[in-house]
């Protein structure tokens, strides 16, 4: 029953959600709304499991003094601290907002801004014209990098329009890039449809975890 | 002749080899300098407006005053530098045209920033909450929320961010779902933009344009050429183009100077790196 019940639920609800798209009746629409609400509620339970797992992982790191246990302490203190302040005073309370503005916001901004430095260093070390394909990639990257900023306009603005970096960059984005992405998206779409069908019909059962293999 | 070469080359190649193994901190320092200096001095590099940005501007500009538009914004402190200038420019355009704006923020980390951005730009134009704009706030599971809003905004958001019932807000009278909005312009730094394309446009046929970060933009040209989105604003460059269109030079136009010089320096690094690579390769072959 441990296996059959989840499989049954997936079959019924999966089939319903697939077919309701084509049924514009009010009952179908209302049921669809109701199921969407259930999804949100069930998802919130998953968050509880996630927080539990996070605490358990970091608690064990601290307990056994594993490498980097100090960071685990910071994680747990921040998690419990922010959660307590938010739960007690609400998300609009002054302390909560201060911690967000002067703690979380600068930290995440800093992390993201470091990308510029790493990209520059990586480009210098790894972007090499070793083969014809690598050279093509390199040239395309240089043209797009310069064509997407005003400096490209200054450097090539005097050339005939089709030879300007901004025009070549647009061509690269609109034609070869679109063609490649579209092929990938169609492939992914077909893959998702096939996998969904396998899950709904109970052919693919790995999502059941250990029970699915029995 | 051979011996002459072997005497001359070590010093030359030594230089290129050294360059190949340069301490990365010199590169970091160079980037730091070229990012910092243009921030102090506005150079005003020319900005050419692309058709994908112009189409968003023209669509919004053609709407009569009082039209409801939806501008969901999903960015956080990490991506704020790129998308906040765009949000400012778009909101300024909408409020200057007396359009009514509905906003959501389906990314939890950004809710506070987006609420403050919306309030700040609305105050610039003397707009009143509930009459000229509404902030619905955050709900988890963006895909489901977007689907539910397609049926009725009141399903996922019976109350707005501030706890007011939607029916108590004058602006929301007669506004039920996407069909009540002339267009949706989603400013998004996450893959959640796919939900807007698949559900808001795909399922509910809402006219949709998107504003995304620079690294995401290449993924969405395919939806532009297929007509699933009518406009695409990419990163800071797109924001700068929008600022130019509304004649309000602000953060994005200034930041384009920084980005221009930083990109040029990165290209320079690539060129130097390749010269060094070929110089050392040639030497290895000759040995």
Textual characterization of the structure:
The complex is a heterodimer of chains A (214) and B (287). Chain A has helices at 4-20, 26-63, 69-89, 94-126, 132-147, 150-156, 165-174, 176-200. Among the domains of chain A are: 1-89, no CATH class; 90-126. Chain A contains 8 helices and no strands. Chain A is mainly α and 214 residues long. Helix content of chain A is 78%, strand content 0%. By secondary structure, chain B is an alpha/beta fold. Chain B has 2 domains: 2-41 and 258-286; 51-249, MTH777-like (Rossmann fold), CATH 3.40.50.10160. Chain B is 53% helix and 10% strand. Chain B is built from 10 helices and 7 strands. The radius of gyration of chain B is 24 Å and the shape is elongated. Mean pLDDT of chain B is 91; it is low at 1-7. At the A-B interface, helix 2, helix 4, helix 5, helix 6 and helix 7 of A face helix 2, helix 5, helix 6, helix 8 and helix 10 of B.
The class by helix and strand makeup of chain A works out as mainly alpha
Give the tally of β-strands of chain B. 7
The average pLDDT score of chain A comes to 90
For the largest sheet of chain B, list the strands in their spatial order: 2-5-6-7
CATH superfamily of the largest domain in chain B: MTH777-like
Of all chain pairs, the largest interface belongs to: A-B, 55 and 59 residues
How many domains is the backbone of chain B divided into?
Answer: 2
The H/E string of chain B reads HHHEEHEHEHEHEHEHH
What kind of assembly state do the chains in view correspond to? heterodimer
Shape of chain B: elongated
CATH level-two architecture of the largest domain in chain B: 3-Layer(aba) Sandwich
Secondary-structure element pattern of chain A, one letter each: HHHHHHHH
- Number of contiguous helices of chain B: 10
- Contiguous low-pLDDT stretches of chain A (5 residues minimum) are none
